[in-house]
Design brief:
It is a single chain. This protein is mainly β. The chain has no helices and six strands. Strands 1, 2, 3, 4, 5 and 6 form a six-stranded antiparallel β-sheet that branches. The protein is rod-shaped, with a radius of gyration of 31 Å.
């Protein structure tokens, strides 16, 4: 708002918080019959489970001060803005792919001979972004419909991203959980 006839100040700020959870599960089967003279049918079963959690916040502030001089059309203004953004995303993926290369192969106890591949992992992705901006402007009316403006802007930005990915040792799913 206006401080007086010649000075005005304007301040705007905002803050946002985020917290989201997402879960998904998939199960798929694939059967391939003898192909081009091979003696082996194949059957695959894949299972996966994903759990994602994202938390974070964003804070912004913008401030501007403007001064009108006694001379008509001459102004000076200073502006400042800052932004902070902090996010943390954690995800867990658990899953296996079971492969039977020849459908007729069975173990001595009669169960199917499966080969399994695990793809369990945990990911933690932390991101921080900060920005800072300073602006100074002097304007002068040079004619009825013209104006000269001298502007100076200083920007500083900082971004950090720390991503950790490693096998998830907490998820143990026995092969028997996939076999009906």
């Amino acid at each position: 708002g206006n401080l007086n006839k010649r000075n005005r100040i304007q301040i705007r700020s905002s803050i946002n918080f985020q917290n989201s959870d997402q879960y998904s599960r998939s199960d798929s089967y694939n059967y391939q019959h003898e192909f081009k003279g091979t003696k082996a049918d194949t059957m695959n079963r894949s299972w996966s489970e994903n759990d994602n959690n994202r938390k974070g916040y964003r804070a912004d502030i913008n401030a501007e001060w403007m001064h009108r001089f006694a001379k008509e059309g001459r102004t000076f203004s200073l502006g400042f803005s800052a932004n902070l953004n902090d996010q943390d995303n954690e995800s867990t993926r658990a899953g296996k792919t079971l492969i039977n290369r020849r459908m007729g192969d069975r173990l001595e106890d009669g169960s199917i001979n499966w080969n399994s591949v695990s793809n369990d992992q945990y990911t933690d992705n932390a991101t921080k972004n900060n920005s800072f901006r300073l602006r100074a402007a002097l304007s002068e009316q040079t004619g009825r419909y013209s104006r000269l403006v001298l502007n100076y802007v200083f920007n500083m930005n900082n971004s950090e991203n720390n991503r950790l990915v490693y096998p998830n040792k907490d998820v143990i799913v026995p092969d028997s959980a996939y076999i009906n």
